[in-house]
Specification:
Number of strands of chain A: 11
Radius of gyration of chain A: 13 Å
Distance between the termini of chain B: 37 Å
Distance between the termini of chain A: 41 Å
Structural class of chain B: mainly beta
Mean pLDDT of chain B: 93
Shape of chain B: globular
Order of helices and strands of chain A: EEEEEEEEEEE
Oligomer: heterodimer
Order of helices and strands of chain B: EEEEEEEEEEHEE
Strand content of chain A: over 45%
Number of helices of chain A: 0
Structural class of chain A: mainly beta
Helix content of chain A: under 10%
Chain lengths: ~110, ~110
């Protein structure tokens, strides 16, 4: 079975600072991993996904994530935060091609001026 | 781009009413899902469907039912709305190989039951 844990329900960073949102997964098979973003009163939008190709995955809006099998992690980073990055971010995992995707509980990112 | 359209962004209904939430996708996707989202609880799967006229219970199906008469449309039904069903409802769809393609979400329906 697959599961995902997001560390920190709220994270605050200053504008221009590094963004780091943490995600650890558990999977009995090689996982597929995703990050989604949700802006206020919107649905979820796919930021990036890892599907066993390159371990460093680049997504939209300058975000990237690195798959680390030894640490069972898939942390999301962005070198320089922008006010428009304020949103809720969801990490998600799937175990096989036809499996349902399991979502974490989300991390709300606050950007301080 | 795949588009998933939820018919209402905001709804206010009275306790005991029968409520229909509609979701339509335009990319011939086999798989469709209904989630509810509440603060601190993340996304919880209510029902899903892998084909027309097919439905499966998710993690919290009580008080809900679904209908999928056409491939592109997946409706969520609150048989008798209650205040504890006040929530954000999200519809999603995916093609075959959902596990590695991911889901496409609609914009959500914020339902308030008074």
């Amino acid at each position: 079975a697959q599961s995902v844990t997001q560390l920190g329900s709220h994270v605050s960073v200053s504008e221009g600072a590094l963004v780091l949102l943490r995600c650890n997964y558990s999977s009995s098979v090689p996982p597929y991993l995703f990050w989604y973003v949700q802006y206020p009163n919107q649905g979820l939008q796919l930021l990036l996904k890892y599907t066993s190709a390159a371990t460093l995955v680049k997504g939209i809006n300058g975000f990237e994530a690195e798959f680390k099998k030894s640490e069972t992690s898939f942390h999301l980073t962005k070198p320089s935060a922008h006010m428009s990055d304020a949103a809720e971010y969801f990490c998600a995992v799937s175990g096989r091609r036809d499996d349902k995707i399991i979502f974490g509980k989300g991390t709300r990112l606050h950007i301080l001026p | 781009d795949v588009k998933v359209t939820q018919s209402s962004r905001y709804l206010v209904k009275r306790t005991g009413e029968k409520v229909f939430l509609e979701c339509v996708q335009d990319m011939d996707h086999e798989n469709m899902f209904w989630y509810r989202q509440d603060p601190g609880l993340g996304l919880r799967l209510i029902y899903f469907s892998y084909d027309v006229k097919m439905k499966e219970k998710g993690d919290i199906p009580e008080g809900y039912s679904v209908s999928r008469e056409k491939k592109e449309r997946f409706s969520l039904i609150l048989e008798s709305a209650s205040t504890n069903q006040t929530s954000m409802y999200l519809c999603a769809s995916s093609g075959g190989g959902q596990g590695n393609y991911g889901y496409t979400f609609g914009s959500g329906t914020r339902l308030t039951v008074v």
